[in-house]
């Protein structure tokens, strides 16, 4: 459904806080107004508070994001019952629900159905209330437009902020020339994969690639041709690796590939596949080739810097050897 708060964890915590606040406010309002606190009010506030506490403690990373949709629905139902059991003043709690929807579900595809549910809940007192119709209509006219305003306007603002933030994030982690990840993205992914594979006691491979004779290509054909070649290599690497693999440009003509759940033998096969693919690229009379170094977690290092150093060392040893492909005969 696409949550646009800072994180999925924040969405669950905000939802938990929303439910707890509506429950506590319902009970406090009943006490202040001298309303008899019967079994209905106690059960309503207790159930809502327990669900809210559960949301605060939930293992959010293991739950389907779509379950978040239940939080505003539960809140709407709780407030609707609270209005009937306590007082019309609690219709103001719909504003909190509207704010949560605007923050977490700014997409109209999700927010509009919830908005419709809130408006129906606002109109329900007309069906069962013994209060004058004028009093009921007054609360609807006061709270209804405010709810619509918050969901629509705040939702659009939140969506716009998310779009800007996502654009900035892309600029900060994507190499502008090749379109693959940059060095910052490489280090972020390495930190993630070392932690994840350490917890599962699994291997993953880091490949470091350096183009042969790239300096000569730049000097012979110009930097524009060199830049175009780097872009082609970046696109080719992105095609040749698996979906779960990551391609990154460290800088210059150096690229890295992170291959999760990959052994040394599988990394060697990936290196061979990349080398064969690069043979189809040429600049003038120079056939493109690359030296590829490999490091495998945790055997060659348990930290990102150690893995990159090990892969670079392997690359240099290979680069020092004879290269089978250079110029066309």
**Total count of helical runs of at least 4 residues:** 12
Total E-strand runs: 6
**Count of the domains:** 2
What strand line-up does the widest sheet have?
2-3-1-6
- Spell out the helices and strands N to C: HHHHHHHHEHHEEHEEEH
Biggest beta sheet attributes: 4 strands, antiparallel
Report the span from N to C terminus.
57 Å
Tell me the overall shape: elongated
* pLDDT averaged residue by residue: 86
Range of helix content: 55-70%
Could you name the ranges where pLDDT drops below 50 across 5 or more consecutive residues?
A: 324-329
Structural class, by secondary structure, is alpha+beta
Q: Which range does the strand content fall in?
A: 5-15%
Protein model, in words:
The protein is α+β, with helices and mostly antiparallel strands. The chain folds into two domains: 8-172, no CATH class; 183-320, Reverse transcriptase/Diguanylate cyclase domain (Alpha-Beta Plaits), CATH 3.30.70.270. Helix content is 63%, strand content 10%. It contains twelve helices and six strands. A four-stranded antiparallel β-sheet has the order 2-3-1-6, sandwiched between helices. Strands 4-5 form a two-stranded antiparallel ribbon. Strand 4 (282-283) and strand 5 form a beta hairpin. The longest helix has 41 residues, at 133-173. The model is unreliable at 324-329 (pLDDT under 50).
């Amino acid at each position: 459904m696409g949550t646009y708060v800072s994180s999925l964890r924040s969405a669950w915590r905000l939802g938990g806080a929303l439910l707890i606040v509506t429950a506590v406010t319902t009970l406090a309002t009943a006490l202040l107004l001298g309303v008899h606190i019967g079994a209905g009010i106690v059960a309503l506030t207790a159930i809502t508070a327990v669900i809210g506490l559960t949301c605060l403690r939930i293992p959010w990373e293991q739950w389907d994001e779509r379950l978040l949709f239940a939080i505003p629905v539960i809140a709407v139902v709780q407030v609707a019952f609270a209005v009937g059991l306590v007082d019309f003043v609690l219709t103001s709690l719909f504003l909190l629900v509207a704010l949560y929807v605007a923050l977490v579900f700014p997409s109209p595809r999700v927010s509009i159905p919830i908005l419709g549910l809130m408006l129906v809940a606002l109109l329900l007192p007309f069906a069962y209330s013994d209060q004058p119709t004028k009093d009921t209509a007054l609360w609807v006219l006061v709270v209804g437009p405010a709810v619509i305003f918050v969901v629509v306007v705040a939702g659009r603002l939140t969506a716009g902020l998310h779009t800007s933030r996502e654009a900035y994030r892309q600029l900060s982690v994507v190499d502008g020339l090749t379109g693959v990840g940059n060095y910052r993205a490489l280090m972020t992914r390495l930190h993630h994969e070392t932690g994840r594979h350490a917890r599962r006691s699994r291997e993953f491979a880091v490949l470091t690639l350096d183009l042969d004779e790239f300096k000569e290509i730049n000097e012979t054909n110009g930097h524009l041709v060199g830049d175009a070649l780097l872009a082609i290599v970046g696109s080719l690497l992105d095609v040749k690796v698996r979906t779960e693999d990551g391609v990154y440009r460290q800088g210059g003509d150096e690229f890295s590939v992170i291959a999760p759940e990959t052994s040394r033998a599988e990394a060697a096969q990936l290196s061979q596949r990349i080398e064969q693919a690069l043979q189809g690229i040429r600049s003038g009379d120079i056939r493109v080739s690359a030296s590829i170094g490999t490091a495998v977690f945790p055997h060659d290092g348990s930290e990102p810097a150690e893995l990159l150093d090990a892969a670079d060392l392997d690359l240099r040893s290979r680069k020092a050897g004879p290269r089978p492909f250079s110029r066309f005969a």
